[in-house]
Design brief:
The complex is a heterodimer of chains A (334) and B (219). Chain A contains eight helices and 14 strands. Chain A has 334 residues and is an alpha/beta fold. In chain A, the strands form three sheets. Chain A has a six-stranded mixed sheet, with helices on both faces. Chain A has a six-stranded mixed sheet with strand order 9-8-7-12-10-11. In chain A, strand 13 (326-327) and strand 14 form a beta hairpin. Chain A folds into two domains: 14-185, Rossmann fold; 187-322, Hypothetical Protein Tm841, Chain: A,domain 3, CATH 3.30.1180.20. In chain A, helix 2 (86-96) packs across helix 3 (110-125) and helix 6 (234-248) packs across helix 7. Chain A has helices spanning 14-25, 86-96, 110-125, 156-169, 173-186, 234-248, 269-285, 316-323, and strands at residues 30-32, 38-41, 50-57, 74-80, 102-107, 130-135, 187-195, 213-216, 227-230, 256-263, 289-296, 305-313, 326-327, 332-333. In chain A, 54% of the residues are buried. By secondary structure, chain B is an all-alpha fold. Chain B has a single domain, classed as Alpha Horseshoe (Serine Threonine Protein Phosphatase 5, Tetratricopeptide repeat), CATH 1.25.40. Helix content of chain B is 67%, strand content 2%. Chain B contains nine helices and two strands; from the N terminus they run βαααααβαααα. In chain B, helix 1 packs parallel to helix 4 and helix 8 runs antiparallel to helix 9. The longest helix of chain B has 20 residues, at 192-211. The chains are: A alpha/beta (334), B mainly alpha (219).
Chain lengths: 334, 219
């Protein structure tokens, strides 16, 4: 199979070059953490509860583009699709700590858990308190009673948004942590893969799908989903996915939600809007009130085609955090 | 003959372990492509090259544990991914069990035991889950059981038990880690982490055997 074309230099320098690009695009609001592959706000207020996010690279804009005011204070970057090492996380933790603890938010993957846990232990040894709220929103990856085995996918955006707003306004780490856990319990996502992305180092696809096949629930790195099947029309596909989401939490008549349509890399806005049309039809029918809609690229897997749908149930408290203005390279709200 | 390895010999042993793992990068890559995302060999090779550089930097060490900790830190910071965390944690745990200037058979067994304890605390894997624990747990048992027969016998018993344990992962279904998602599709494949663990113990046994060739145990 032909190697997938990529606009890169030496693939081993991708992560460093991407960070440099983000820093320059920020015009002074972001800087690199000295000596490691991590990016942070140029000014983190004294006494603020710090929010540190991150994971493997290659999913841009997640996580790095969501560093900014009322969002994350730093993002740590692993190699492509590989967890960042503890020294990177530890250095970034020290760099953003302002005396009031650090909250970690990242996807619920074995490699990330171990590396972030080791970093948290290193931080504790230096007197820095760390709490962790992992993203575990993918309903396809495990049944509800094994929520702790669920993977983190597109709903990571709302986990970061809410945790960012909470860390910016909470008096202490425990208060911010409580909000982050509430968000974690309220977010549900489901993805569908139409075509694979590729590993930039090798040019090889991360999984194989037949020409006329899709896989509902497939993970960001090609992890098996709920069902592999023939391509079906957008409305039928959307209906299946919305059903999986609504029945999982479950979302009920009268619930207020935020809706996120995340392009996995190569799916067009045209397709997302066709999906949104049907999703809203279904949610309206069920009396689920959509407070806001986000759409576009939030968590990608290179040129993977497909999208994820996320719903988050919002009570008054979570609504305030969703609505709080925020600024970053990947998302802004005024 | 000495009752164990002095610090120079322990340093040489860890260096040899690194060389064995690096030399097996293609085999580890192949094993991981079948069951994971294919980056295990590259990550381990990157980590153990950093181990050689760190050991050669020759910072003073007072105990075998200090050298094991140098190894741990290099892997933790350079290998990346889940395997970097796990093998870094193994050496870091082993370091806590090896607080003596001479690596004796007793210390060797305790290092493996503490390494196993640390790995299980970190990754929650049990024997039978198709992970490196399936190579390490029988190796720790074997090393302790053979401790009375001397370091060479203990290291060889551990290496054999680890090799056998790695082979046995072929019949197992993955329960943790990325391969968990493969479920039944993971059967018939050796776990790449178990393979690496068996290579590490083979490297230790080879180096120990070379240093004390005539340390054949009684009986």
């Amino acid at each position: 199979m032909a190697r997938v074309k990529k606009i890169v230099n030496d693939p081993h320098h991708i992560v460093e070059e991407v960070i440099e690009g983000f820093v320059l695009a920020s015009h002074g609001s972001l800087r690199k953490v000295e000596g490691v592959n991590a990016l942070m706000r140029a000014h983190v207020p004294e006494g603020k509860v710090a929010l540190l996010i991150g994971g493997g690279s290659g999913h841009e804009p997640m996580y790095t583009a969501f560093v900014g005011e009322n969002l994350a204070d730093a993002s740590v970057c692993g190699h492509i699709f590989a967890a960042p090492t503890p020294d990177i996380i530890f250095e970034a933790t020290k760099a953003v700590h302002r005396g009031n603890g650090v909250l970690y938010v990242y996807g619920n993957y074995a490699g990330d858990i171990m590396n972030f846990d080791i970093a948290a232990e290193m931080a504790a040894a230096e007197g820095i308190t760390v709490k962790t709220a992992r993203v575990m929103d993918d309903v396809a990856s495990a049944p509800p009673e094994r929520m702790d085995q669920r993977r983190g996918i597109g709903g990571a955006f709302y986990q970061v948004k809410i945790a960012g707003a909470a860390c910016a306004t909470a008096p202490d780490l425990d208060a911010a942590y409580r909000i982050a856990l509430k968000a974690q319990a309220s977010i549900r996502s489901i993805g569908v893969a139409v075509a694979a992305g590729s590993l930039p180092e090798t040019g090889e696809p991360t999984f194989l799908l037949g020409d006329d096949e899709i896989e509902i629930g497939m993970g960001a790195h090609g992890e098996p989903g709920v069902q592999r099947r023939k391509l079906i029309p957008a409305d039928a596909l959307t209906e299946e996915m919305v059903d999986l989401l609504v029945n999982d939490l479950p979302f009920r008549r009268g619930d207020r939600v935020a809706l996120l349509l995340n392009d996995l890399g190569a799916t067009t806005l045209m397709e997302l809007m066709i999906v949104n049309r049907k999703a809203r039809m279904l949610l309206d029918q069920q009396g689920i009130v959509v407070h806001e809609t986000q759409f576009g690229s939030y968590l990608t897997c290179q040129e993977m085609a497909g999208f994820s749908l996320s719903l988050i149930r919002l009570d008054d408290e979570l609504t305030r955090y969703v609505d709080l203005p925020a600024t970053s390279l990947g998302y802004a709200r005024r | 003959m000495a009752e164990g390895l002095d610090l120079d010999a322990t340093r040489a042993m860890l260096r040899h372990v690194a060389e064995v793992v690096i030399a097996n990068e293609p085999a580890l890559t192949k094993a991981d492509q079948a069951i994971g995302d294919g980056d295990h060999g590259v990550g381990m090779s990157r980590g153990f090259r950093a181990v050689i550089a760190a050991l050669d930097a020759g910072r003073p060490a007072a105990t075998a544990g200090d050298l094991l900790q140098v190894t741990a830190t290099a892997i933790l910071t350079k290998a990346g991914g889940a395997s970097g965390a796990i093998f870094g944690t193994f050496f870091s745990g082993a370091a806590k069990g090896a607080g003596g200037a001479v690596l004796s058979a007793a210390l060797f067994g305790r290092a493996l035991r503490e390494g196993l304890r640390a790995v299980q605390a970190r990754g929650q894997a049990k024997p039978g889950d198709k992970t490196m624990v399936d190579a390490l747990a029988p190796a720790a048992d074997a090393a302790e059981a053979s401790a009375a027969a001397g370091l060479r016998a203990a290291a060889q018993a551990a290496a054999e038990a680890a090799a056998e344990g790695a082979r046995a992962t072929q019949g197992m279904v993955a329960k943790v880690g990325k391969a968990r998602a493969l479920g039944e599709r993971s059967v018939d494949r050796i776990d790449p982490g178990a393979l690496t663990m068996s290579l590490i113990l083979r490297g230790m046994a080879e180096s120990i055997t070379r240093v004390s060739p005539d340390a054949e145990p009684d009986g």
